[in-house]
Amino acid sequence: MESLKKLVLIPWDFSEGAENALQHAIQLAEAGGNEIMLLHFIPRSAIQDFLTRKVNIKEIEAANKKFEEVAEATFQKYGVRPQTLVLEGHPKRIIRELITTANVNLIVAYHTYMYKGKSYRPSTLLKDLIFKDITLPFIIINTPPKHTHYIEIVIPVDYDRKFKEAVHWIIYLAKYYKCNINIIKPFLTDDGKKKQMANNIYFTKKMLDGVGIVYGIKTAKKKGSFEDEVFKFGKIIESDLILIMTDKYDYFVDAKREKSLEIPVMCVNPRVKKYQSFN
Known about the structure:
It is a single chain. The protein is an alpha/beta fold. The chain folds into 2 domains: 7-141, HUPs (Rossmann fold, 3-Layer(aba) Sandwich), CATH 3.40.50; 152-239, HUPs (Rossmann fold, 3-Layer(aba) Sandwich). Helices cover 40% and strands 23% of the residues. It has helices spanning 16-32, 46-51, 57-78, 91-101, 122-126, 167-177, 191-210, 226-236, 249-252, 255-258; strands at residues 7-11, 35-43, 83-89, 104-110, 113-115, 118-120, 138-141, 152-156, 180-185, 215-219, 241-245, 265-268. A 10-stranded mixed beta sheet has the order 3-2-1-4-7-12-11-8-9-10, with helices on both faces. Strands 5-6 form a two-stranded antiparallel sheet. Strand 1 (7-11), helix 1 (16-32) and strand 2 (35-43) form a beta-alpha-beta unit. The radius of gyration is 19 Å and the shape is globular. The mean pLDDT is 88.
């Protein structure tokens, strides 16, 4: 029996931002042989969700009707006919259940999801979704893709021991998408931090050299914050993606920066038992 194709999930609020996320998802899905699912969720509070699972049938039917037009327009424009789904409930529960039951292995989201004038930050919903045996990545975007495929990827490296967990994703992206790897490290003065960062750099170089991946390493300027230097560097080289560990998201991307992101940010979680790639 043929195995189910994996899904790239897009939170869909029928906005231009969601359309931008779709364009990124199409690039990634085509390269990985994945299908695309558009999810429109009708939010409820955690208390409402706990007390009742009764849903607004009329609203769901209206959203499904709109989805028919979206699916057809997407097919006409991009040659891809996405799956669509409308669910009502608490957003975290909805996304969590989909990830564990619908073969979702990557989420691409616009930085804001709007519903009846209220805004939700998908990054807030996704940051703590870590599952047994699954390390699900997600990408937060603002603008459409710069290129027809991802070419330049920026990887900030620091002294955190957990950075080594990101090396798997560096190798995966470089080999699968044949993109260029640009590593940037902070300017440090603390001897202990410098030693740990040197260990991370040594480990990363050893792993990348071992599989024949070409990369560059740059040291950020002493002046200015490291997170600012990362995004400045990404802008200079016209980076298509910045890859970070999920627990570093708030450090690199605050709410203000998120709304003006010029470069998509991909978040990956430390492995639990095994990695979940998105091909």
